[in-house]
Amino acid sequence: MTTSPTPETSHFDAAARNWDQRPMSQQLAAVPPLLLAQLPLSPTDQVLDFGAGTGLLATQIAPKVAHVTALDMSAAMLQVLNDKGVANITTHHGDIFDGLPGRYHAIVSCMALHHVADVAALMRAFAAVLHPGGRIALVDLYQEDGSFHGDNEAKGVKHFGFAPEALQTMAESAGLRGIAFTDIVHMQHQNGRSYPLFLMTGHLG
Length: 205
Ligand SMILES: C[S@@+](CC[C@H](N)C(=O)[O-])C[C@H]1O[C@@H](n2cnc3c(N)ncnc32)[C@H](O)[C@@H]1O
Hints:
By secondary structure, this protein is α/β, with parallel strands linked by helices. It has helices spanning 7-15, 23-28, 31-38, 58-61, 75-82, 119-129, 164-173; strands spanning 46-50, 67-72, 89-93, 104-110, 130-141, 176-188, 194-204. Strands 3-2-1-4-5-7-6 form a seven-stranded mixed β-sheet, sandwiched between helices. Bound molecules: S-adenosylmethionine.
């Protein structure tokens, strides 16, 4: 599947080359081990990384599982990931709402939910491609005042973070159960403020 650059992808296409060097990305490097501590994975698992970008999560999960599908709408972000040459990661260029190539034992994501306008539909899309009992482990911002990204429209920001109760309701409506939230990291912003991120976990059925 191919997707042309849109206002949603142009920010990430432009940012891709230096994505891993950004101070924010370097802080996000703390996320994968903390997420993995709460998401038991097996060597036979097929995992989807939603909004995988340059593979900050996918590259750390790949050694623990059979295969990671790294889904992203930005071709340039996925090119950076492809250049890392991880054998059991396949990049998939497209919008999650255009369909996915497989079914998964787990879906992970870091800082991508707030770019999706219809998060209830996203939860249904996740549920539709999980194996029975398949798990989610999703990281994003708690509700904030819009100051995290600043230029929200240009960066394709659709939500200023999330209230856990609202996300939980959407997830449960999609058939996800055992929803739990934990604080995972606090992002120290150049504006001097600290923004907490949550890890949301749960499973299908
Ligand atoms: C803030 S970046 C995070 C990238 C990476 N997970 C990280 O933590 O560095 C969000 C990514 O989600 C992708 N994205 C947003 N909406 C998407 C959608 N509907 N389908 C696929 N990818 C999407 C964007 O293209 C972008 O690369």
